[in-house]
Every structure is written in structure tokens, then in C-alpha cells.
Amino acid sequence: MVDIDQYLDNEEQTVVIVMTSGPSAPNRCATPFYLGSVLASMDIEVHIFFTMEGVRLMEKGVAEELAAIEGGKRIIEFIRDAKRAGVTLHVCQPALPGYRIEPASDLIDEVDRVARASELADLVLRCDKVITF
């Protein structure tokens, strides 16, 4: 018999969402924030780590102009919802030069930290679940 309570106890769980999708695939850009918001509202510690093209979503002006579907809610609103829910946003420092993004001036205010790849490795090793987009 399955103990359903083990699935309902979210105490001290951590989820890392690795976001590699960016503006070239807008249909993939809302769900990580929505899912992160839902998980955070369930008292799960949620980190979204942006790398590869995903760092572009954290660039000023990009998420403000991007929607997952035509006429839909702007990605910046999904980002702000996730932040209000308690999601932590990490941007991969080694990925920024490839997109000519300066961490000190080009990132949106919602970014919590600019991080090295080793910090992603640490997050992945200590978390309970990893989801990729």
C-alpha cells in the first residue's frame, strides 16, 4: 500500500529548474516561471538557473516584449509572479559574454544572483528534483 502522506509532505524540499530556452522559443518561456510559482506556493524551495540562451530572458527589455502565445501575458509578468512566490533566480555568468550581456548593467532587477557553473552543480547535487526547459 502506498503511503500518500509521503507525497504530501513538502517540508524542506528543493527543486532546481534549469532554463536553457530563450526568446527563440517563446512557447517554452512561461511554464518554468508558472511551475516555479506553484511549487513555491507549496512551500518548496525553488531555484531557476538560466544558462545558454535562457540568460536572454533576464536581459532588460527582452521579457517585457515576449509572450509565450500571441496576445498572451508577457513573460516579465510570469517572472514577477515567480519572484512574489519566493522563487530564486540565478543567471549563469559564463553564458553572459556570448550574448554580450553585462551583469552590472544589462540584467533585470528580478535577478537574485549571477552565478558560476559550479554553483549550478552544487544546487543540482543538493536538490530533490531537477526540471529542465
UniProtKB/TrEMBL annotation:
SUPFAM superfamilies documented for this protein: DsrEFH-like
Gene3D superfamilies in alphabetical order: DsrEFH-like
Protein name: Sulfur reduction protein DsrE
